[in-house]
Amino acid sequence: MPTIYARGQKGRKALALPNLSRKEEELLQKIPEGMRRKESPRLPEVSQPELIRHYTHLSCLNYGVDTGFYPLGSCTMKYNPKLHEDLAWLPGFTGLHPLLSEEEIQGALAVLWELSEYLKGIAGMPGITLQPAAGAHGELTGMFLIKRYFEDRGELPRREKILLPDSAHGTNPASAAMAGFRVVSIPSDRRGMVDLDALKRNLDETVAGIMLTVPNTLGIFEEDILEITKLVHEAGGLCYFDGANLNAFLGRARPGDMGADIFHFNLHKTFSTPHGGGGPGAGPLAVSEPLVPYLPVPEIVKDGEKFRLNYDKPKSIGRVHPYFGNFLVMVKALAYILTLGDEGMREVSAAAVLAANYLRVRLKGTYKLPYDRLCKHEFVLSGEGLGEGIRTLDIAKRLIDYGFHPPTIYFPLIVREALMIEPTETEPKEVLDTFCEAMLKIAEEARTNPALLKEAPHNAPVRRLDEARAVRQPILREPFPGN
Amino acid sequence: MNPYIPHTRRDIEEMLSAVGLPDVEALFSDIPEEVRRRFQPLGLPPRDEIWVHRYITGLSQRSTGTKLIPFLGAGLYDHYVPPVVGHVLSRSEFYTAYTPYQPEISQGTLTWMFEYQTMVCELTGMEVANASMYDGATALAEAVYMARRTVGGKAVLVPKSLNPNVREVLATYVWAAGLELVDVPYDEQGQLTLSEIPEDTCALIVQEPNFFGVVEDLSSLKERLGKAFLIVYVNPIALGVLEPPGKFGADVVVGEGQVLGLPLSFGGPLLGIFATKMEYLRRMPGRVSGRTVDAEGKEGYVMAFQTREQHIRREEATSNICTNSALCALAATVYLAALGPEGLKRIALLSMERAHDLAERIFSLPGFRPAFSGPFLYEFAVSFSEAERAVRKLREAGIAVAGPALLEKCGVKNAFLVAVTEKRTPEELDLFVRSLSSLAGKE
Amino acid sequence: MVPKDLRYTKDHEWVRLEDGRARVGITDHAQKSLGDIVYVELPPVGKEVKKGERTATVESVKAVGEVFAPLSGKVVEVNETVTKSPDLINKDPYGQGWLFVLAVADAKEVETLLTPEAYEELVKGGG
Are the Cβ atoms of A135 and B322 closer than 8 angstroms? Predict the structure, then answer.
């Protein structure tokens, strides 16, 4: 794939910029000699048509939700409504500086306040911060809140461990460790749920909390959720809920009613804001009453018809974002909530869970389904046993040939050769059926012509890439001649 | 049915019958009955597109601040965003994709990531860059965590001239890690003065140019620090004319990339720049794209060194970061490619030229003095005995600057901060000076 | 294929006893389940390790294998060649792919190691 550096010629320009009225040298003299740049950075030199063609070409090598079915488990790759994109780009939002005075930013504060109220309602919890820029940032903020809470109560350093089911997302243990907690893994039982006996054995006066994903990463709702949160609370710990899977019960159940103390939203999953090829997202955090005093500053308060910022929160952990969080992402989420209303949100979870269960029953005879029970918005198959030497990776790559984005693979770790499938609510039944047929065909090919899978993909922009080489002989930037 | 769900009644019936359930409600029988019973809706009706369009547009028009002329910077700047950036970002193959877990159908994303890494290395003078962090502030916090993992130590030396909003984020992270912020003072030039370096120093942070707009001298800092990290927090536009921190032995260069083709957006999304030395690659947070070949020998890109990351190393990962600021990094890539080396320099110089014009005229007014005598590029602090009044006067004329409250957080009294970009016109500069002239002479 | 002249651990390390010293590597089974090995981190020579202590790291593209000290002792030699060519571990796990040599502190600990037969059982059982 040629990079932009392979295009253009020295001296080409893509933009007509104003001229200087002073001499360049005169301006540069204002910088002390030692700090003045000696060599120009090697940046591309391209004309505007070359620039646009290059990035248009690159875009064509990508696969997005607008290209086709994207059943990437845990990521909720639903359709991203176009109206919401346009609304986020309104000049009244993009042109606004966050350090203007309160009176000058009332429209933006109205967006934040209104979204806050809806998210609190959806979570069934009394406190919120919109600052976290992503789900993992929300987790980290949650861990900071837990830390401050126990610090304030004089229970540190005693409460030093965070319990985590072995099916947890990787961000969970990483966030807990980053905040200085020790991670203790709790095994899953045969149902694919938290093993209550193992949980009880680990509940003592050193527990700071538990991080749960609801439903869990197998797509299974923890039937003992009320018992789990009760046990943790009795031991003096707090309950963190990873909200990546909110699409499974949106408009039907609230984490606050399940005993959650902290719950993060992924606006870029449940609330339809696009993922941007890796971000930006947004990870607002709802909290229970005891944690409200510790939330980041500033707090957005409604005073009659006016909104103001409250910095007077002496117990706050401080800021986790330099301003108010990923504001433009929040505009899109607010537009989504307003479009759907209560009824539309209930339809989301119904359609997402129905689609997942439909795929589950259609595929389970052919593929191993290690936890065979009613699933929520996603489920996990195993790619084992399809044929000699066939691995999940091969199935995934072959799906590309059939025009689909592969599911999440090799996660959760508790299923060997895992294939984690999340169809979301926005796919027509015809697409679900075509996907099933492709999956069944691939299982057949695994027996009859395994090379087709092993060598897949055959019609992607590139064939299977040598990932080992990228690490053994790292090239992480353009190697210019003479470098 | 909401407009994004394509299922017909018949589809639903067929799927339910395949699953063997009588109705949709049965899909949720595994949620405890007690939880379902407690559920309360928001009380929101569904709305049509026209209503939502009108309503949100109304909210966007309620902020009067967008009508002000922004001489307000203080970390985020009103640079010109060329339309080429928006046009590339609006390709939905880019913005509706997830993280490039499947490289064969993500070559678009992986290729621009590689380009971005190259450009960041070129700007900063560093050997390796990641594919973005959330924003400059959290990138800085992550750099401090990386310093602690690498060299240990407890003291994080932070100049009083660091952006106060960035400092507040850093303070939260530093508290959580059990580290300690140690203030580094500045002199009358506005530059940091590093007297002694505590033995347990983990890192020194230098903002370049600093919050007052003053250019810091980076030479000999690394030599004095020894193994402790030199972390430089940059404004990447300034690197069009400033020597890259890599030349001064910086261990990590971070920065706020909003200036590279992103609008102000009420402070988010932003772009966290992160670059370091090759020897610290395995300690670096975030994603990296690497060049390799496919089964037929054709060049391509993959996410490399993933074993550092949370999805593999879990509690021992270099960071918990997963979702980052990819699309913002794409904006920066297109912006830098559009400008080229000369264009980037031009933007920095145009901003400087206008800033120095304005500064000269303001400081010729009696009573208005530069708060600091050090060299500056396109932002500067103005001292005036009635700074609040001056700021009010500017507001009345439709001009926004960063008021005294922000500078007071850095220990500067009776001053305001003025930022000038290439977008400011001679008429706007005139208006600025005219608005202040009635106050001139008040000491 | 489990070589008969070596001893093993349940964590898939092999040990070759050489006159008071123990040469350590990872087994063929371990290298196969990791896949293409791309990176090796070895302990510094002179480091004292306890049995079961994390002593080296072997990474493939998408997995990390921790190598635990099979016995207590002092690291007296490390295989610098595998840090440059980690694929040697894939190609020749019991030969050129060795990782480090320990001066064994407590000869009695050797009895805790698995015999080739016991290790073979373990692998067959899905361990």
Answer: yes
